[in-house]
Design brief:
The complex is a heterodimer of chains A (699) and B (359). Chain A is 27% helix and 17% strand. Chain A has 21 helices and 28 strands. Chain A has a 7-stranded mixed sheet. Chain A has a 5-stranded mixed sheet with strand order 2-1-5-3-4, with helices on both faces. In chain A, helix 8 runs parallel beside helix 14 and helix 8 runs parallel beside helix 17. The longest helix of chain A has 19 residues. Chain A is globular. Chain A starts with a strand and ends with a helix. Chain B has 359 residues and is an alpha/beta fold. Chain B has 14 helices and 7 strands. In chain B, the strands form 2 sheets. In chain B, strands 2-1-3-4-5 form a 5-stranded mixed sheet. A two-stranded antiparallel ribbon of chain B has the order 6-7. In chain B, a hairpin with a 2-residue loop joins strand 3 and strand 4. The chains are: A alpha/beta (699), B alpha/beta (359). Chains A and B meet through strand 7 of A and helix 5 of B.
Chain lengths: 699, 359
């Protein structure tokens, strides 16, 4: 037997597991199922629910398998591996006892409980519960607590597993939930019932094994067995978190995370989770055409006629601007139409940004991969606030900081990121002489085996973004962040559609204008592909065609509105910030007359006489794969595969590195896109946050 | 245990440690490394409670959290876990009444009644802000049950009367000396010792072993105990192992002779003396003496040493008569004079000298 492996006899089956395993993990390795409430594989071990009891033959008492490290166990007296039973009368009796205690104070309100049907306690009570109760005294009742607009509490149901407490402290990094008092009076609460401030607070709902913490917006809406579950991809940030969209009829009822170890583990940010009511509000469900200064409903024919008229302007007076949530198919169709019309003015980047035009993919994706931060030993964040821009990844940084002793440095906004970091400066000036700088993090980066440098949108959206990117890249080469098996240089995007649009080549063509120029006046016609985050105040007399799902900034300014499907309503390709190609699936039908984006452009191309060469989404995707093979690799992040291209110096064509601090790209975490702005839940969160922030500023 | 929540209204907005507390804070913080200073949370909360008139307000708790750089919720957890951190205002004198079994058996429930009457509900404060009370679990002074703790001191062996008096004094601003409220020293028996009275326990005469058996030869031997008189009995052992047989060793002292039995008298009912006025004679001993035919002080005064030995043996308390000097007491009382002890008995102050039927 090797030193780091340990042999066990579990239910008569011999298994060999690492000594660091808990007995529960070993039992699962042997195929046994162990019931549990407090244990969670991504949280520290508490060992307080006692549901996971197993029998260790020879031990005087049942063993809580979650808290027993295998390496601490001893052999049988005759030297054979310890015998564990996960079944049988002994174990059953122990677990029945635990279950009876848990149920003493648990209310019998399953019929009105939102957890009903997906409740760990309910499920395990079926296996281990009694048919009746022997408890004749009054059950205890606990006051419900305020935890903010997202988490509803029915604290009488709480079984004090403390998963939420451990999640807040360990993963979310905001110590806001705790267990107060003791014994029978023990209660879970936030400090004086203040609202949770974490961007990940919704995850406590999934963690809660009973119905004590449930989703406030989803309360009493549906039962899990009535819901149609569709696995899909989130577009609220550029991480491409894997989600499951639960729908009933035509409405999305809730969004849950799906485990993807490489992307979101099993967490989901609050914006991604609670956005769904925005999918039913402010929707563009039919085409509109502006008549006499007012947007009036029209049919598709009329709208296309008007669009054809607008697009009959000279090609150099037409611009296409893609927004943050654009899917690859729409970008491809729109780009093909633009080029067919001879239009070179196409851009998918925020105004002023100049990166990505050279088509070298490695320079605009997140090469080290999201998972890579767990391998890295030093991390430098430049012009990004991952807590707001990529909340789920931020928890992974925190994990690495907590367990791997990751050193973090920040250039840019000095925000509370839930972990300690060294603040090197606010703007590009901090990059000068960074290599030789006498600071802990500079030295850590210099000596790191796997240093990681992440550039955020705060850098890229600047006029001098490319020059800074080049300077950072030089620094990355200097500290040897880019080697054969490690690409420690990458870009953290904030928009789900950006990388995909860049991969289709949605940048200005030969002599074409970029976003700032297109929107800066002088165009005759502008096509907005869900572009709402851009400044539309200087478009002059240009006719604006807006293709998108929500009535927001773009639609209100538009002359022609072509309603498109939202991300839950179509099978579409998105590429996350790592360059990982993922597909959404259609969970519900598009609203009203809305159509998938690519289909709109395919139909429009017919109207303007430049018919695009694909009749179905499959044809389109075949064309996509032909144009850019990256689209063939579904679910795959290139990581260090592109390290050769990354090794070349970036030559910055534009202005040199300027000065001035990097500004935060996301002001209000809850209001970053049209869907979020349509969501009441997000509006509540936003108000809550502002209330909190003003209160703190006043102190 | 009731729900424990901060009294936010009474807590106000601010709290500051008293300047004289700072050295103590520095002492506690000094015990832990800088990055582990949260270890000092309990003493710090305790100091905050001391500096905040005996209770922990929310601002006081926040001050502790800020000083220790802890999230508020973590300190809140500690403050609510330990019930000795009081989250509501208390009176100037906060009474913690022990209600655990020994105190309860000795009358804690009567004391609770007193508190209910004099102060009100638990954790309520009297209008003058002087008194408040709560029931607590065992305070570890069971030998002096029933008892209460008022602020930092124990008040023991209470009766409803003595507690009423204490509360009255405290309410009027008078000081009350802590400690026991009956005639005893600390936890010693009331009215003097009742056991371990044998003189030879203390004169070293029982200590027959003069050297430890396994001591190395060159080790300095313990100085031999200085016996002041010859041991009356053998070493305190009752078995002797020999050849695998166990034989009981008879007491070496010869059995008392019957002729040493003191003289008995026959008297008419009502003529007997109250023997309990002799220190050392309680109702039980009196009854035993009466059964022997001893009713009068004069009889005891006339005992010879042989009589004393006989009586001591009969009543199985060797040496006691001599030590408590019954004969001298009896001589005094027989003449009609009084002793200090008999005065107290006559005044009814000595509980153990009352007849069983008296209460």
């Amino acid at each position: 037997m090797s030193d780091d492996l340990f042999k066990l006899n579990i239910d008569g089956q011999e298994v060999e597991v690492p000594r660091s395993y808990t007995l529960m993990q070993a039992c699962e390795e042997a195929g046994a199922e162990i019931p549990r409430f407090c244990y969670h594989e991504r949280l520290s071990v508490a060992g307080n629910c006692r549901m996971c009891l197993v029998q260790w033959h020879g031990a005087p008492k049942p063993i809580a398998s979650c808290a027993q490290t295998v390496g601490d166990m001893r052999m049988n007296p005759d030297g054979t591996p310890p015998n564990i039973s996960t079944q049988g009368d002994y174990v059953e009796k122990a677990r029945n006892g635990v279950m009876e205690f848990l149920l003493i104070n648990h209310p019998l309100d399953c019929p009105i409980c939102d957890q009903g049907g997906e409740c760990d306690l309910q499920d395990q009570a079926v296996a281990y519960g009694r048919a009746d109760s022997r408890y004749e005294l009054n059950k205890r009742a606990v006051e419900d607590k305020n935890m903010g607009p997202l988490v509803k509490t029915i604290m009488t149901r709480c079984i004090q597993c403390t998963r939420c407490v451990r999640f807040a402290a360990e993963v979310a990094g905001v110590e806001e939930i705790g267990m107060i008092s003791r014994g029978e009076s023990a209660e879970i609460t936030t400090y004086l019932e203040e609202s949770l401030t974490s961007e990940l607070s919704g995850n406590v709902i999934d963690l809660c094994p009973v119905g004590a913490l449930t989703s406030k917006p989803y309360a009493f809406n549906a039962r899990p067995w009535e819901l149609r579950k569709t696995e899909s991809v989130d577009v609220m940030d550029a991480l491409g978190s894997n989600i499951r969209v639960d729908a009933k009829g035509d409405a999305v009822m809730r969004i849950m995370p799906v485990i993807n170890e490489e992307v979101n583990e099993e967490w989901l940010s609050d914006k991604s989770r609670f956005i769904w009511d925005g999918l039913a509000r402010q929707r563009l469900d039919q085409p509109y055409v502006r008549k006499d200064g007012k947007l009036t409903p029209a049919n598709w024919g009329e709208a296309f006629e008007a669009a054809r008229d607008a697009l009959s302007a000279p090609a150099d007076k037409i611009g296409f601007v893609a927004g943050d949530l654009i899917e690859v198919e729409q970008a491809k169709a729109a780009l093909d139409l633009a080029r067919a019309l001879g239009v070179q003015n196409t851009d998918c980047r925020p105004a002023g940004a100049t990166y990505g035009a050279d088509g070298v993919r490695e320079r605009y994706i997140f090469n080290p991969t999201l998972l890579g931060v767990e391998e890295a030993d030093a991390l430098l964040l430049i012009g990004t606030n991952p807590r707001k821009e990529a909340a789920v990844w931020n928890s992974r940084i925190r994990k690495a900081w907590l367990w791997n002793d990751l050193k973090v440095g920040v250039i840019g906004e000095a925000a509370d990121l839930t972990y300690d970091y060294e603040h090197l400066g606010d703007g590009p000036d901090a990059l000068k002489g960074l290599f030789n700088r006498d600071s802990e993090i500079a030295e850590a980066l210099r000596n790191a085996e796997k240093p990681m440098i992440i550039v955020g949108e705060g850098v890229l959206a600047r006029e001098d973004g490319e020059a800074i990117l080049a300077a950072v890249h030089d620094y990355a080469l200097e500290i040897q962040a880019i080697k054969d098996d490690w690409a420690g240089f990458g870009v953290l995007h904030t928009a789900a559609g950006r990388v995909g649009a860049l991969d289709t080549g949605f940048v200005p063509g030969e002599g074409g204008a970029s976003t700032a120029t297109i929107l800066g006046g002088g165009m005759d016609a502008i096509v907005l592909l869900g572009a709402d985050e851009v400044d539309l105040s200087k478009t002059g007399n240009a006719k604006i065609i807006y293709v998108g799902s929500h009535g927001d900034a773009g639609a209100s300014k538009a002359d022609i509105v072509l309603p498109a499907a939202a991300y839950t309503e179509m099978a579409a390709t998105y590429v996350n910030t790592e360059g990982r190609v993922q597909m959404t699936r259609r969970a519900v039908q598009p609203k009203g007359e809305a159509r998938e984006g690519w289909a709109i452009f395919r139909a429009l191309s017919d109207v303007v006489g430049k018919t695009l060469p694909y009749d179905s989404a499959d044809d389109l995707r075949a064309a996509l794969r032909e144009a850019n093979p990256v689209f063939a690799g579904l679910g795959y992040a290139p990581g260090s595969a592109g390290v050769e291209a990354l090794k070349e110096n970036i030559s910055s064509s534009g202005a040199g590195v300027g000065s001035g601090a990097f500004t935060a790209t996301i002001g209000d975490f809850y209001m970053t896109n049209p869907i979020a702005r349509a969501s009441k839940t997000m509006a509540e969160c936003s108000l809550q946050k502002q209330g909190l922030e003003t209160e703190m500023a006043a102190e | 245990m009731a729900l424990r929540r901060f009294d936010l209204e009474a807590g106000g907005d601010s709290f500051a440690f008293k300047p004289e507390t700072e050295p103590t804070i520095a002492f506690w913080l000094g015990k832990y490394p800088e990055d582990k200073k949260r270890s000092a949370v309990i003493p710090m909360l305790w100091l905050a409670q001391k500096d905040n008139e005996g209770w922990l307000s929310e601002p006081a708790m926040r001050e502790v959290a800020d000083r220790l750089e802890m999230p508020y919720i973590r300190v809140y957890e500690v403050a609510t876990f330990y019930t000795m951190f009081r989250l509501q205002p208390v009176g100037k004198h906060h009474i913690q009444l022990c209600g655990t079994t020994p105190c309860m058996l000795r009358g804690a429930n009567d004391l609770k009644e007193v508190c209910h009457k004099a102060i009100g509900k638990p954790m309520s404060v009297t209008d003058d802000g002087r008194l408040s009370w709560e029931e607590v679990e065992c305070l570890g002074a069971c030998a002096n049950a029933p008892m209460v703790q008022i602020n930092d001191y124990y008040y023991e062996d209470l009766t409803p009367e003595s507690l009423t008096e204490i509360l009255g004094k405290l309410q009027n601003g008078a000081e009350v000396k802590p400690g026991t409220f009956v005639d005893r020293l600390n936890s010693a028996p009331e009215g003097g010792a009742t056991s371990l009275l044998e003189g030879d326990l203390y004169d070293g005469s029982r200590n027959a072993i003069s050297a430890l058996p396994n001591l190395p030869k060159d080790a300095p031997a313990d100085p031999a105990p200085q016996a002041t008189e010859a041991p009356k009995t053998a070493a305190p052992t009752n078995t002797k192992r020999e050849d695998g047989k166990t034989t009981l060793i008879k007491d070496s002292k010869p059995a008392p002779k019957t002729q040493d039995k003191p003289e008995t008298v026959e008297i008419a009912a009502g003529e007997e003396d109250d023997l309990k006025r002799i220190k050392g004679i309680g109702p039980v001993n009196e009854k035993a003496l009466n059964e022997l035919g001893v009713y009068k002080f004069s009889q005891i005064a006339a005992w010879t040493p042989a009589n004393v030995d006989w009586v001591e043996d009969f009543m199985s308390f060797p040496g006691r008569i001599e030590r408590e000097d019954w004969i001298a007491q009896a001589k005094t009382l027989a003449t009609g004079d009084e002793t200090d002890f008999s005065k107290r008995v006559d005044a009814g102050e000595v509980e153990s000298s009352k007849d069983e039927g008296d209460e």
